Amino acid sequence: MRYFIEFSYNGSTFFGYQIQPNEISVQEELEKALSTILRTEIKTTGAGRTDTGVHAKKMFAHFDFDGEISEKLVHQLNSFLPPSIAVKKIFEVKEDFHARFSAKYRTYEYYISLEKNPFSEKFAWQHWRKSLDVEKMNEACEILFEYEDFGSFAKVGADNKTNICKIYHANWEQNGNELKFTISADRFLRNMVRAIVGTMVEIGSGKLNPADLRNVIEAKNRGVAGTSAPAHALFLVDVGYDF
Question: Which residues are catalytic?
Answer without folding.
Answer: 51
